[in-house]
Amino acid sequence: MISRTTQKNGITTLSITEKGSSVLRVHLTMHVPETLFSGYVLQSFFAEMLSRGSKKYTKENYEDILESHGVQVSFEGTRAYVHMTVVMKEGSASKVLPLIIDTLAHPSFIPKEILGLKKEYAQELHEAQDNARARAYALFTQHLYEKQHPNYVPPLEIQRQELSKVTKKALETMHHSLMSAPWTISMAGSDVLMATLGASFQKIHTPTTEVSSEEVSRDFAPHTTEHIIVPEKQNIEWCIGNRLPLTRTNPSFLAFSFGIDILGKRGGFSGRLMSTVREKEGLTYSIYAWINGITATRTGHWQIATFFTPKDSGRGLSSIKRELRRIVTTGVTTQEVTLFKELLSNQFKLAYESTRSTLMLYHASRIAGRTPLQVEAYPQEIASLTRKEIQEALRTYLNPEALVIVGAGPTDKLLEKN
Amino acid sequence: MAHKTQKKAGSGHFTHITSLGGIHEYELKKNGLRVLFLRKPGTQAVVSNIVYLVGSRHETRGKTGIAHMLEHMLFKDTVDKEGNRSPKPRHISLQNKGALLNASTWLDRTNYYFVMPPEYLDEMLSAEAERMRGLILVQRGYLPEQQNVISEFEMYASRPDYVLESALNTHAFVSHGYGHDTIGFKSDIESLTCEDLRAFYDTYYWPNNAYLILVGDVEQDYALSLVAEHFSHITRSPHQIPQTTTEEPPRTGSQTLTILKNSPLTLTSLCYPTPRASDPSWPALHILISYLTSGKLSPLYRKLVETHKVSSVGASYMPLHDPGTLIIQASVSQNIKPKEIHNCIFSEIAHIGMNGISKKDLARVQEKLIADILYAKDGTYTVAQGLVEYVAAGNWKLYVEIAQQLRTVTLSEVQECARRWLQKETVLIGTLGKENAV
Fold it and tell me: So what's the ipTM on this one?
């Protein structure tokens, strides 16, 4: 049973009650205030520091209690959010929940730990030079966004500079800001325990700020092609797309999203890109298109991700452009619209296949500004979409002649420059 | 609410083999197809996951990668039981209705799955049965697929960790089929023909060489009646399914391999022989490896990551049908020599062999591993996929029993495992990186 969102003290909580459940699952997201968006490294550094000691627990105590009770806890920081995920047996609650609360309320930011994490982080940045896919994506975002946009990923060199500026004081400021920022919490487990935990979160959280918003820009980024050489790779990772100046509340968003699914639905072979570029032409193992980084208040982008050998890259990119032009000029067919309505509606049902995936569906949607009722209305919303609306949205927001194209890998072996 | 229709009870077509942990095993009398059924009410979904007991272990040199290539071709055209060609590959219809579907090939098995709302079980099983014996293998569909597999090969070959692990396995298995990657050698992939695939398909793709796993929100009688309806017309294989017999000889002496790459990464791995999943020492070994490498309290994390000698350390191993390998891998920090990492790992293993681990550490690792098993029993897909690996390893009941087996592991068994399986004398050491780093 899914309880509707309750709003108290700046925390929005959604509870999925499982009768007889022995497992508690919690997703907690803190919304980073816009004033702190200038940093990229600080958020992920902060998230990692949350597992390195608090007022009442040393790092060793923390790990010992979690592991001794078989608890899974993870933290992740992005520019706009700090996420915590907990999976635990309900029988361990009396030992584990006080630890979780203390971790959030009173992280200790011990200088020795900060220094240690800086060294680990620096090594990770060094190794990240080898990640062609991530480097292609980062450069892609650098062409689409302003430096302080939540979706902008800075160059590795800038991340190194930011890392050197992380201090105890900066972490404490971040913590102070997050304790008064909005939190979104989604839980699954037994009623009593979720109520107890919800009350504990209320006690440590005093919100004064609101979820950030931004103005919508309508311009496409100019057509650009960029290459990064990453040695010792067989394939070139390609990231192709452009800005999408829509928020989730815009009436065209759903229609555009539906059109992008027809173009390159992630997973399986149903999208046009997989059925042509992979299945018919045999140019790549994987090619998908999707929308990224969009919430009820923020715009984002659409993108295609794939890889080709240097030899096939020219043909592969031509095929992608051909498919983009085709979907914009000749549109989508009635048959495709009917088919994707059934496909998306059934896949929505499958999100309820496990407690884990149900919780993720609701939590991710809620972070993006959708209420549980809006989430549940998705099948009806797509059922009422028309072919005309989808084509109109694609023609307005997808320009095949204005693409940001970034390739990373053995780009020095490209036969032709694209 | 469980999905049910007016179909007659299907259990009459089956012999009940055994039941454990809510999972019921049946054999279809007509042809020997094994069925594992687990009802999961309230999930609003059902998984059909068929496991063929054939993987890259069954391949020969010159034809490596054939099991995986065939897996790709099972998404092509088929004929139905009357011999009529289906207008398009059967999975497409299910995919267009929103099925989550895929397939994978591994050392001991190849599996194919659909996840759908329960009302589609009939169509899922019809499609699965049709491609068991009705595959059409023609050159026209094969050539682009061959290119896709080569693209997949190159995707893996771009990953330094994959390159190193692959080289280690090649050296670790001189005789046994685990010694080549599931994807195969590139020249073998390029030279495989439709005729090769047909011969492989006709050898291994039979009901008496398969387990059909059904997990979800459907009633058992209904599910079994559908299995009987769609699979009963298929005959047993007209031949004995070939079994592999090669055993890897014991490794004598430590070995070292180095791969020079112009990569910012320096990776190093220690590769040890491990027992098959059915070996009585497997649960203790599982605990030993987890103690050693998993989590921030593990000795290798504390001695290597916390001291900034490596950025990460972990272990790769899984339950297998035959004796396999454990690979402890680390990503070495700049200005640190891999040998220093090896010595630290050797020292920790020697310490455990000499002194064992503490009672508290044993309890902690047991609790962690058993909790992970509990969490992975959520829903339908992960349960079915968990069963796949134990089916392939030769005993699906281990999926249910492993938690209890872990619970009863003793301190002396863990210590004995360190002495028996993690011997410095049999280790294979691999390192990848720039010349001045390795």
Answer: 0.91
